[in-house]
Specification:
This protein is an alpha+beta fold. It is built from five helices and 18 strands. It has a six-stranded mixed sheet.
């Protein structure tokens, strides 16, 4: 019997709508600036940039329970805590150098997530050419809904995605505005990493990201997929 020096961390899991089985999270990949207007607001030229990727630790995932009030703790070491609403793709197969067809087949379902960001720390890191982990990969920085199975349907290529703060709409766009669609993102990612079942991909955020403070209520929705609501505490 294996004995551990310290107690291993429990699995990070997301429930699956309509199923008793659970989805174990392996890794969380994030796509940077995958909507043209967001790329422009962050100072990039979307007509030139290939997708680029960064990671959040899987322990950043916080399940949003639709049956209760959910809270998000305002993190330490920041004065600019910002929201980014995103479609999340869940994989149940993987590989290297996938074709479009293989990328399509790898997608099990979808979640709605927030890529919460300590923007001041991220900006400082970018200015100095340093990694983004302090700005992106911190505790509870990836709130997500339960996974909605794809159930044999074609990959999502359109659908309204929105986020509001205290009832005021801040982000509003459509998946049809993704610079790189779901299958293309998976193909490009598989050229850099071997993908595996259990990987999640946060596919990028629309324009108009912005800050929240303690007491703010964040609501987000993705047409035909999910809604989430939480309060910053």
């Amino acid at each position: 019997m294996t004995q551990y020096l310290i107690t291993p961390e429990p699995e990070v899991i997301l429930p699956i709508i309509g199923m008793d089985q659970l989805f174990p999270v392996r890794r969380v990949f994030c796509v940077g600036r995958n909507y043209a207007e967001h790329a422009r607001e962050m100072g990039d030229d979307p007509s030139r940039d290939l997708p680029f990727f960064f990671c959040k630790d899987r322990t950043c995932v916080q399940w949003i329970n639709p049956t209760q009030e959910n809270s998000l703790v305002y993190p330490e070491a920041t004065e600019k805590f910002e929201y980014e609403v995103e479609l999340v793709v869940a994989l149940t197969s993987g590989g290297r150098n996938l074709t479009i067809e293989e990328a399509d087949a790898a997608v099990f379902g979808y979640s709605l997530g927030l890529d919460m960001t300590r923007r001041d720390l991220q900006s400082q890191a970018k200015q100095k050419g340093r990694p983004w982990e302090a700005g992106k990969s911190f505790e509870a920085s990836a709130p997500m809904t339960s996974i909605v199975p794809r159930s044999g349907a074609a990959l999502l290529n359109r659908g309204r995605i929105e986020l509001s703060v205290n009832g005021d709409i801040k982000q509003s766009s459509d998946l049809s505005h993704l610079t790189w669609d779901i299958a293309e993102v998976i193909v490009k990612l598989s050229e850099l990493f071997e993908l595996h079942p259990g990987d999640l991909i946060m596919t990028g955020t629309p324009e108009n990201v912005g800050p929240v403070i303690v007491g703010d209520r964040i609501c987000a929705s993705l047409e035909g997929v999910a809604e989430l609501e939480l309060v910053v505490v």
